From TrEMBL:
InterPro entries recorded: ACP-like_sf (IPR036736), PP-bd_ACP (IPR009081)
Descriptive protein name: Actinorhodin polyketide synthase acyl carrier protein
Alphabetized SUPFAM superfamilies for the sequence: ACP-like
Source superkingdom: Bacteria
Leader peptide range in chain numbering: none
Coiled coil region boundaries: none
Residue ranges of domain Carrier in the record: 3-81
Pfam family, one: PP-binding
Record PROSITE patterns: CARRIER (PS50075)
């Protein structure tokens, strides 16, 4: 499986919750908090549900609220993928 990238995360964010007007998800959003990007905890739960189904990386529901930025989310998904791979 290929590495989970910011592009994959942004794609899932758009699918699950759309895009907030005035926010450019194509820019460098890696360290911008999800709430500033217009994504609440419910939207993030949906994103991580899609991650589980598409990539097989399960992020516990209680951990989702701790993932404040896309960088934190990428790290969590990559760690989960590494754990399932080996």
């Amino acid at each position: 499986m290929s590495e989970f990238t910011i592009d994959e995360l942004v794609r899932l964010m758009r699918i699950c919750a759309g895009e907030t007007e005035g926010i450019d998800l194509d820019g460098d959003i890696t360290d911008i908090p999800f709430d500033e990007l217009g994504y609440d905890s419910l939207a993030l739960l949906e994103v991580f549900n899609r991650v589980k189904h598409e990539f097989g990386a399960e992020i516990p529901e209680e951990m989702v609220g701790e993932l404040k930025t896309p960088r934190m989310a990428l790290t969590a998904v990559r760690d989960a993928l590494a754990a399932t791979a080996g």
